[in-house]
Design brief:
It comes from Acinonyx jubatus. InterPro entries: 3Beta_OHSteriod_DH/Estase, Lipid_A_modif_metabolic_enz, NAD(P)-bd_dom_sf. Belongs to the 3-beta-HSD family. Keywords: Membrane, Oxidoreductase, Transmembrane, Transmembrane helix. This protein is an alpha/beta fold. Helix content is 41%, strand content 16%. It has eleven helices and 13 strands. The strands form four sheets. A seven-stranded mixed β-sheet has the order 4-3-2-5-1-6-11, with helices on both faces. It has a two-stranded parallel ribbon with strand order 7-10. Strand 2, helix 1 and strand 3 form a beta-alpha-beta unit. Helix 2 packs across helix 3, helix 7 packs across helix 11 and helix 8 packs antiparallel against helix 9. The longest helix is centred in the middle third of the chain and has 27 residues. It is globular and about 55 Å long. It starts with 10 loop residues before the first strand and ends in an 8-residue tail after the last helix.
Length: 318
């Protein structure tokens, strides 16, 4: 699952409550396990002693401890074998938030998630035959992380550095004071696993949604500047008013729309990206703290440092 800094995504944790199938209690499937969040999820689950299946459209890594299933998220026949016999499913698959493909978002995030839920119910019934009552025992929780970053991130840091190389990181949009939640990937994984381990028939978290963040909102441009300077690139230093940037991006989008029948152009300077870079967007994780006992494991300072170290190969040679 690729993440940038848009609206919080809704990852799903689903549990079929298998009270009569104790060996399955530590078996789980990570949907989207070849992605950024998914790979970190798999690592932590294995470290905790879980038996792990991965379902994805590709195999992103090799690990003899992991059973890979490849297929289409929207195809129940592809998905069913990966879910059969497991107690918990972590659904981390999603298109990149920066994607402009509405049809892809609808297919993966709506149809795909609906298919996951339906297939989970079917796989749960098969696993324990008539002992499982789907209406009583099928439990779900939605986890909403925001701005996931960290080592192995294929989006935020590589795209940021590529923009810096091209001289596109010279301007701050707005006054630079807008607070945003960026969340270290290990904290997101921690939130998912906490949710799964608290999820039971009588738990207050069943059927609820929880924001998971670093609980340290940081000015958007301060965060980017720390990554850039940590990798020996200059931080943005010129300011452009937010409304000027937004309307320029809007005009560019209209121009692209006009010429699209003739030329296919994918602009990176869009109204959505300007809004994400120049507005406040951070969220309370108080409910996760109170109900699940969630606390970030890695502070923002440590997370940024570890991210910089994880991308040492992108460091600019002085």
């Amino acid at each position: 699952m690729e993440q940038a800094f848009g609206e919080p995504t809704r990852d799903q944790v689903t549990r079929t409550h298998l009270t009569e199938d104790i060996p399955n209690a530590s078996k789980c499937t990570v949907i989207g396990g070849s992605g950024f969040l998914g790979q970190h999820m798999v690592e932590q689950l294995l470290a905790r002693g879980y038996a792990v299946n991965v379902f994805d459209i590709r195999q992103g890594f090799d690990n003899p401890q992991v059973h890979f299933f490849l297929g289409d998220l929207c195809n129940q026949q592809d998905l069913y074998p990966a879910l059969k016999g497991v107690s918990t499913v972590f659904h981390c698959a999603s298109p990149p938030p920066s994607s402009n493909n509405k049809e892809l978002f609808y297919r993966v995030n709506y149809i795909g998630t609906k298919n996951v839920i339906e297939t989970c119910k079917e796989a749960g019934v098969q696993a324990v035959l008539d002992a499982n009552d789907p209406e009583r025992n099928f439990l779900t929780i939605a986890i909403r992380p925001h701005g996931i970053f960290g080592p192995k991130d294929p989006q935020l840091v590589p795209i940021l550095i590529e923009a810096a190389k091209k001289g596109k990181m010279k301007f701050v949009i707005g006054n630079g004071e807008n607070l945003v939640d960026f969340t270290f990937v290990e904290n997101v994984v921690h939130g998912h696993i906490l949710a799964a381990e608290h999820l039971s028939q009588d738990a207050a978290i069943s059927g609820k949604a929880f924001h998971i963040t670093n609980d340290e909102p940081i000015p958007f441009w301060t965060f980017l500047s720390r990554i850039l300077t940590g990798l020996n690139y200059e931080a943005p230093k010129y300011h452009i008013p937010y409304w000027v940037a937004y309307y320029l991006a809007l005009l560019l989008s209209l121009l692209v729309m006009v010429i699209s029948p003739i030329i296919c152009v994918q602009p990176t300077f869009t109204p959505m990206r300007v809004a994400l870079a120049g507005t406040f967007h951070y969220y309370s994780c108080e409910r996760a703290k109170q109900v699940m006992g969630y606390r970030p494991l890695v502070t923002m300072d440590d997370a940024i440092e570890r991210t910089i170290q994880g991308f040492h190969h992108l460091r600019k040679v002085k």
